[in-house]
Specification:
By secondary structure, the protein is mainly beta. The chain contains 3 helices and 9 strands; from the N terminus they run E-E-E-H-E-E-E-E-H-E-E-H. The protein is globular and about 45 Å long.
Length: 133
Amino acid sequence: MLVHLLRTKLLRAEVTAARLDYEGSLAIDRELMALVGMLPYEKILIGNLANGERFETYAIPAPAGTREVCLNGATAHLGKPGDLLVIMSFTQVEESAASSWKPRTATLAEGNRRIVRLENPEVPTSLLTTFQR
């Protein structure tokens, strides 16, 4: 049997822009995505801590180093710059492996430029040096 578990999470990611004229998705700085192993075009679930909205879309990589988190298209109606988001992706794991499963998560601060907490990282040290600690 397979169980559905959290795979990656960016906690307290700050919305930097909202583009209503774009077709859809959530643009995320590719370094933020790499920090937790989130994949381009991966299905994601987003929770907006400011207004309680929850929605699904897919992640698209924004330019590295910009720390951009941009609501695109219809999702632009569900938040505004400055809102804090929880961005999650999920996977299916064999039930026998579920008890030892550990998601890769990062808690962000200061406009997505500082890592407050990093859990189960598999990222190169060179990437970590681009963030404030």
